[in-house]
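User: Hey, my collaborator sent me this sequence without any context and asked if I could get a structure. I don't really work with proteins. Can you help?
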Amino acid sequence: MYNLEMKLNAKQLRKLDKSKMPMSEIKRSPIFLILDNVLDTYNIGSLFRLADAIAAEKLYICGKSEYPPSSRIHKAAVGTESYVDWEKHDSALEVIKILKDKGTQIISVEQNPKSIDYKMLTKNLVKFPCAIVVGHESNGVSEEVLKESDIIAELPMLGINKSFNVWGSAAVICYKILEFI
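Assistant: No problem. I've predicted the 3D structure and written it out in structure-token form, which is a compact way to encode the shape of the chain:
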């Protein structure tokens, strides 16, 4: 059996026999990740790594995104796609409606006139369980999803670049939210 105290590197993760992992012993965070038409397979793989890193409850791949098995996702995910609970859905909106019906707070990461600076996310504002939504690399989170979001948070862009990488943005928000658990 595998000892959960021991952390694995990329080579070990890619070769690990999942049947030897005591996955039920991992204490899951009350956080879901929703990918709204994220197209870059390396971003998807990196989001699997993030989901594993924060012990997310589940990752939802929505829209026209590629999903496992995929050699490119596997490469970026370093095998974590085998250990993260995930589902494929046609629409992020469909997932959001299901999760909202179960009392899940929806937090989209997007630049929008209604967005707040991520530093304004506080223990009083964030409710669990919550879902973090990230969107398409060029188009962002879809308008229909933003309308259903309870909070829209954005990262300040202090340089000349307009936006931050989708998985990097998700990581900043997820780790901010972990402070409140």
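In plain terms: Helices lie at 10-15, 41-53, 71-77, 92-101, 143-148, 166-178. You can pass these tokens on to your collaborator as they are.
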